């Protein structure tokens, strides 16, 4: 960060980036769970069926990709909300 920013602007910028990083960390945790949990427990999950397919196969073939698209959509939605909130704060200060 640049030291020339006023303290109020600097605090707002720090809060914005903390919120951004929190969103990213939460979505990375979801990605980690979707990627590694079904693979780790694949043998134990073979008794579960989704649309007549064994759950580990379904997650590898279809489910993980759907979850990854959902993660991308959630990130875009979350950042849009965060950007709008920041834009409103800046407009209110003017």
TrEMBL record:
Keywords: Membrane, Transmembrane, Transmembrane helix. The chain crosses the membrane at residues 21-43, 55-77. Residues 15-85 form the Sodium symporter small subunit domain. The keyword Transmembrane applies. It holds the Pfam family DUF4212. The keyword Membrane applies. This is DUF4212 domain-containing protein. It comes from Zwartia hollandica.
């Amino acid at each position: 960060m640049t030291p020339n920013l006023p303290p109020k602007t600097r605090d707002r910028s720090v809060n914005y980036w903390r919120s951004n990083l929190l969103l990213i960390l939460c979505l990375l945790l979801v990605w980690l769970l979707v990627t590694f949990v079904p693979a780790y427990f694949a043998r134990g999950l073979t008794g579960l069926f989704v649309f007549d397919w064994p759950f580990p196969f379904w997650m590898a073939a279809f489910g993980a990709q759907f979850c990854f698209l959902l993660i991308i959509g959630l990130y875009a939605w979350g950042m849009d909300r965060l950007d709008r909130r920041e834009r409103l704060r800046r407009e209110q200060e003017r």
